[in-house]
Structure formats: C-alpha cells, structure tokens
Specification:
The protein has one domain. The strands form two sheets. Strands 4-1-5-6-7 form a five-stranded antiparallel beta sheet, with helices on both faces. A two-stranded antiparallel sheet has the order 2-3. The chain is an alpha+beta fold. The chain contains three helices and seven strands.
C-alpha cells in the first residue's frame, strides 16, 4: 500500500481583501469573509484556523506557491516554485492529519551542493490544523 503525503507551501501576503466574487467555500473571520487560496486542499475551517494561528489579521492573505500533486515532488520543483518568497507556511496533509510550520523568512540554500549542514536565523513555529488534537493548535 502506497503512502501519499501532500505538501503545500503558501506565501503570506499582507493585503487588503477587496470586494470580489468569492468561491463557494468561505470562512467568517472577525466579520470579514475570506476564502482558502486557490490550488490548495485546505477546507474553510482549516484555513480559518491557519489565519487565526497567524494572529487572525483580516488583511492577511496567503497565496499557494507549491503543491506536490501539481508541481512535482523533487527539491528542484520546490525551489523553482517557491523562489525567494517570504514568509512561508508549509502545510502537510496525510490522511486525516493536516499540520505544518510557519517561517518568517524564505529558503536559504547552502553555499555548495555537498554542504552537510546549513543553518540560519529564522522565527519558526509548528501547528496542527486537524487530526491530531480536538482543536487546531
């Protein structure tokens, strides 16, 4: 039996949500309706939990940059689609589990392809949107 894990990488963009036609799946966040970004499998409730975990700012929108089922599964595919975007949200879906991480910076590559370690300063926090706990954390 094959294991399927889907990775979605979203870029947080701070913009004002305008008045426009909205997809059927929407969430109500502090009196403002917002929809999950296109090209993601996030449900309305998962997206609402994600926004709330990032502070629930009604002007915060995210854009889907990379999805393994659409863009491919190699490291090169990820880098080609994410580029120098920042901050980033990594969302992983495995069966009923949806979890991930937020980083306030972009991806920084090591200096050489054979470098075994590469570290850099970045704010990081993990979250669970569904499956692990009764409520998103």
């Amino acid at each position: 039996m094959a294991t399927v894990v889907m990775v979605i990488i979203l870029c947080v963009v701070s913009t004002t949500v305008g008045t426009e036609a909205r997809p059927a799946q929407q969430v109500q966040l502090r009196g403002l309706q917002v929809s999950p970004p296109r090209n993601t499998s996030l449900s309305a409730s998962e997206y609402e939990a994600l926004l709330a975990s990032m502070g629930g700012d009604t002007t915060t929108q995210v854009t889907s940059l990379y999805r393994t089922s659409v863009h491919g599964t190699t490291y090169g595919d990820l880098l080609d689609n994410v580029g120098d975007a920042k901050p980033l949200v990594f969302v992983v879906r495995k069966d009923k589990y949806v979890f991930g991480a937020f980083i306030n910076c972009g991806l920084e590559l090591p200096e050489g392809p054979r470098d075994a370690e590469h570290g850099y300063e970045c704010d990081l926090w993990h979250f669970s949107l569904s499956g692990h706990f009764p409520k998103p954390t």
